[in-house]
Amino acid sequence: MSRGFNRTILMGNLAKDPDIRVTQNKQKVARLTVAVGKQWKDKQTGEAKSHTDFINVSAWGFTADICEKYLSKGKPVLIEGRISVRDFDDPKTGKHVWITEVIAENVTLLGGGQNSGQDNTEPQSRANTASRAEASADMGSLRDETGFEDEFPLDFSTCEGQQNREVQIPF
After folding, report:
1. DSSP secondary structure letter of residue 66
2. Does residue 107 sit in helix, strand or coil?
């Protein structure tokens, strides 16, 4: 069997509040619906068109805790995960059902805490940043933390002490 690659990245807004449940094995799961919009111009009429996809996402364990605590309807979010397809027999209807969803491996909260219209204080904002850091495997979610003020790409043309103005990379 060949080895495949299953990775998806979604950026959109929550279509509804997270649905939090606990399984029989005491595992917390957050079921989300992410609205992802697309806009284009019709080639024949020149008219602007748009379409929104509503994508089902499941987050488990600690990621579900973060979703429960910080996400609500309308909040912008970035989801990194994998596509999962499962099937089962629905006991209510007796029909065989197939479900396609994204299993979230990383959830990044977008939009900032203090500019979102809520009355956040500085300690709450720092707690939010710390929780995002724990939820994220990479440190990209710490961009608003102290020490990450630089904008990318960095401009090395203003560096002092370089005579030939070339950047030397130490590897």
Report:
1. H
2. strand
Give yes or no for a contact between 30 and 16, defined as CB atoms under 8 angstroms apart. no
State CA 36 to chain mean position distance.
12
Q: How far apart are the first and last CA of the chain?
A: 38
The residues near 131 (Cβ < 8 Å, ≥ 6 apart) are 66, 69, 70
Burial of 93 (0-12, 13-18, 19+ CB in 10 A): exposed
d(CA 58, CA 32): 6
d(CA 44, CA 37): 21
Say if residues 128 and 70 touch (Cβ distance below 8 Å): yes
Residue with the two structure tokens 């724990």: 134
Mean pLDDT by groups of 10 residues along the chain of 171 residues: 90 94 93 94 91 95 92 94 92 91 93 52 39 44 48 51 56 54
Instruction: For residues 153 and 169, give the distance between their C-alpha atoms in angstroms, rounded to a whole number.
Output: 15
Helix (H, G, I), strand (E, B) or coil at 42: coil
